[in-house]
Design a protein that fits this description.
It is a single chain. Helix content is 48%, strand content 14%. By secondary structure, the protein is of the alpha/beta class. It has a seven-stranded parallel beta sheet, sandwiched between helices. Strands 10-9-8-11-12-13 form a six-stranded parallel beta sheet, with helices on both faces. α6 (149-157) links the parallel β6 (143-146) and β7. The mean pLDDT is 97. The structure holds uridine-diphosphate-N-acetylglucosamine (UD1). The site of uridine-diphosphate-N-acetylglucosamine has 19 residues, from α1, α5 and α11.
């Protein structure tokens, strides 16, 4: 039987593919595990492989950073060679990063079936590179595996035939539940000298928040305000660290008392930080979902979300990136205006198995 190629490239892919890779292996299906190398720093990549018990990739493309065109094109050129050599029975991609669209496009032109994990999410904001990646990947995929019912509705509106779409639930929650026990052993709070339950956790890396000096410095003002109240733990993405330095904000941020600036964390330490946070401020996609699963209030510093179910049913609030708004919304959470919340359907830890059943039937 020809192999199934499971593709990862950037940090948010690893937690989506780990449980699926393990499920397919358990079924004794032939799997080739491919890493494009879009993310390459140890703490953006390797640490996740170790902690999530993923093997060394069978194939590593090592494409690294570059403009969107450079990065996407490099992946395509190398991945085409892999597909021609290995003749995979299926290529499975996840999420919305450049590696996702690059590999889906190559495979579909070689008539290799493409499965997309986390299909159908839409922010309706085409200024986000991820939105372009999502729309295009879904258009050329043969199997669209959705995390929530809103995704099925989006795909129906775009004319994707029903029989290609399967509602399987949120695979990141499989990883979260599988690792919750291990994360309890983390000593990260001690290491960073923060008190459990009494800090805010921050992540920030979107171009819309970090690429313009004015926007980023407004956010820093809001962080200064929050730090008068509680500590902020900020594992900074390399892109953000570079921008803070470029804009002369780095020194200022390191001088804020109660502000804990640290390097990106591995999965287990980060999960431990999330579980014990009073509040999470983020522009990430995955964190909006993980905080909903954990019941931790989340403020999303974006104008929109491709994950509306986290707002409708979960703990998420979309607040944009203006200084005043961040302060006001932070206050609301801290003053404990709690609201009703539930865990969305099929965010139950069994998504990898549901996908495995579908993939196995498809390639049989
Ligand atoms: C990518 C994804 C984004 C995801 C994010 C999570 C796309 C279009 N975007 O954005 O959806 O939320 O990953 O992290 O694919 N860099 C390093 N070391 C690394 C990786 C990156 O130093 O290991 C630096 C480089 O300077 C690089 C910059 O970060 O130029 C941006 O990396 P890139 O992969 O292009 O996009 P992200 O911003 O990480």
């Amino acid at each position: 039987m020809n192999p199934i190629i499971v593709v990862v490239g950037a940090r948010p892919n690893f937690m989506k593919m780990a449980p699926l890779y393990q499920d397919l292996k358990k079924r004794k299906l032939p799997v080739l595990f491919l890493h494009t190398g879009q993310h390459y720093d140890k703490n953006m990549s390797k640490v996740f492989f170790d902690e999530l018990e993923m093997p060394e990739p069978d194939i590593y493309l090592g494409v690294g950073s570059g403009s969107h065109a450079e990065q996407t094109a490099k992946i395509m050129i190398d991945f085409e060679k892999v597909c021609v050599k290995e003749k995979p029975s299926m290529v499975i991609v996840a999420g919305d990063v450049n590696s996702t669209i690059a590999c889906a496009l190559v495979a579909s032109k070689l008539w290799i079936p493409v499965a997309h994990v986390e299909a159908g999410l839409r922010s309706f904001d085409r200024q986000m590179p991820e939105e372009i990646n999502r729309i295009l990947t879904d258009q050329i995929s043969d199997l669209l595996l959705t995390p929530s019912v809103d995704a099925n509705e989006n795909l129906a509106k775009e004319g994707i035939p029903d029989e290609k779409v399967k509602f399987v639930g949120n695979i990141m929650i499989d990883t979260l539940l599988n690792n919750a026990g291990k994360a309890k052993k983390s000593v990260i709070h001690k290491k960073l000298k923060v008190e459990k339950g009494n800090y805010a956790l921050l992540t920030l890396h979107r171009p819309s928040n970090v690429d313009e000096k004015e926007v980023l410095s407004g956010i820093v003002n809001a962080l200064e305000y929050i730090c008068k109240d509680i500590s902020i733990v900020f594992p900074a993405h390399p892109r953000t660290t570079n921008k803070l330095k470029e804009f002369g904000l780095y020194d200022r941020i390191t001088k804020i008392s109660n502000f804990v600036l640290t390097e990106p964390k591995g999965y287990l330490d980060f999960l431990a930080l999330m579980k014990e946070a009073k509040i999470v401020l983020t522009d990430s996609g995955g964190l909006q979902e993980e905080t909903t699963a954990l019941g931790i209030p989340c403020l999303t510093l974006r104008e929109n979300t491709e994950r509306p179910i986290t707002v409708e049913q979960g703990t998420n609030t979309i607040i944009g990136n203006r200084e005043e708004n961040i302060k006001i919304e932070y206050r609301k959470v801290i003053d404990n205006k709690s609201r009703e919340q539930k865990i969305p359907d099929l965010w139950d830890g069994n998504t990898a198995k549901r996908i495995g059943d579908i993939v196995e039937a498809k390639i049989a």
